[in-house]
């Protein structure tokens, strides 16, 4: 279907409440890519990702993993000379792909975020052992062993919770959430 | 210290994984004469994950904590950089966006709470750094000879900065370490990210980030890395062995919370500061302070 | 023939909005579109509409609900019929699998879930507009 709304515009709509300037303000200086501590591991660095969004390459952007590699360190955001809130843009793209359920299947990031949110919605607090289930079985054997070793060490040092914590006014909390996301029984 | 009483938001990590951060915080607050009143029935700040899914919900979670602190009439203090950043940012958003505040207040009604934007959010290190004179006076067991790499990490500073601090050239962590008698080293990568949750979601990237930090800390001559965030502590310490396996390195760099170092300098026995739950033993200068503290 | 009814669609999915717009235009409605909550609100302030078709998940989260609540509190807009068209169940399926949508705390007139059957859409639109007019008289 033909539409007059460009992909760049669609992303700007997603970020309508954020403070930064739109990606079209980018002058391709490369400060973001140069300053990003994860840049070496991204399939597309931030500077190029922004150019791709501006050029309306929606399918290519959606197939990118780069924004799931963002650690939210905000170095790009505070250094962008054009005032683009790049870390916020990465959040926006994550949200966009989660809502559309459109992300590369082998990524751990989305599953981890979803598990995390589920835990909070149900108990009000985070619980590390449950989070581990979102990624443990995606690991190779060697990594699995290393992970188990780490967990054992934490346990021995008394640093792993045995029981999940939960807040006291959980029923109020759940009703509060329902007023924001009007869904559920 | 101008302010002496705060609503204290420990955050999920400090319940167990980073319990030593909590214990040492409580101990030094007592010595400093600061009252930290734990926020009753606090909930998770949402970490980064919540913002990946639903920002309105993420703000609601933070706002519930803010509203509870407001009810107490106290500013909120958070020891975890992630919690601090989320609640600080939420506070800023709600203060300027009245539609958002109104909508979130509608949700908060379910828990008989209301946000009116009357309080501030501080990071724990910020409140201790505000009165270095007092810190110095209490540091009766100074950590002489201990070379510390003060690791700021990310969210303690970014995306915003403390009103009095430069986001690119902060000095308060160094100054705090000097105040307790330790020697802060020039740690070039002190503002560089530890990888945070990438240690789970993109391990290769995070391990490499941790390796760079450890190498730089060693190169700068540090005996120990001091952190102000549970996620940084766990990444830098608990994943060090994985870094060694991955890169064939032989790192063995102890990583402690700044509150544990402060506590030692105040003569508080190591055990009460959670020292002993770490993977990597304290360096010699710290052990010496531990022995003295036990005697004091 | 009566004068053309003025409709506004607020939906962040441009393809979906175009789709329902073309259905409504064919049925002789005049249709404006806004693709984010901020522009949507500005449109409502600038022109008098006979009906609002409102998406839920936009921008930061369920911002459609924010708009619906704000409309309900404003005497200027209280009469405006609101038809929510959402796929929130699909978008948040991982969190509340199988949960029903229930924004019963906001004053919306009808709720449809995407994808929307054209015939049903036109039916709802015409019913809501007629009901609103009857109320005015």
Q: What keywords describe this structure?
A:
heterotrimer; A: about 180 residues; mainly alpha; Fumarate Reductase Iron-sulfur Protein, Chain B, domain 2; about 50% helix; C: about 140 residues; alpha/beta; Rossmann fold; five-stranded parallel sheet; 5 helices
Structure description:
The complex is a heterotrimer of chains A (185), B (296) and C (137). Chain A has helices at residues 7-14, 31-35, 46-54, 58-63, 75-79, 86-99, 109-123, 128-132, 141-156, 170-180. Chain A has 185 residues and is mainly alpha-helical. Chain B has 296 residues and is an alpha/beta fold. Chain B has 14 helices and 8 strands. In chain B, helix 1 (19-31) links the parallel strand 1 and strand 2 (35-38). The relative contact order of chain B is 0.15. The mean pLDDT of chain B is 94. With 137 residues, chain C is an alpha/beta fold. Chain C has one domain: Response regulator (Rossmann fold). In chain C, strands 2-1-3-4-5 form a 5-stranded parallel beta sheet. In chain C, strand 3, helix 3 and strand 4 (82-86) form a beta-alpha-beta unit. At the A-B interface, helix 5, helix 6, helix 7, helix 9 and helix 10 of A face helix 2, helix 3, helix 5, helix 9 and helix 10 of B.
Distance N terminus to C terminus of chain C? 20 Å
Identify the overall geometry of chain C. globular
- DSSP strand (E) fraction of chain A? under 5%
Helix count, DSSP H or I runs of 4 or more residues of chain A: 10
Please mark out the parts of chain C with pLDDT under 50 across 5 or more consecutive residues, or reply none.
none
How many strand elements of chain A? 0
Order of helices and strands of chain C: EHEHEHEHEH
Shape designation of chain A:
globular
The domain count of chain C comes to 1
Q: What is the multimeric organization of the chains shown?
A: heterotrimer
Terminal Cα separation of chain A, in Å? Answer: 36 Å
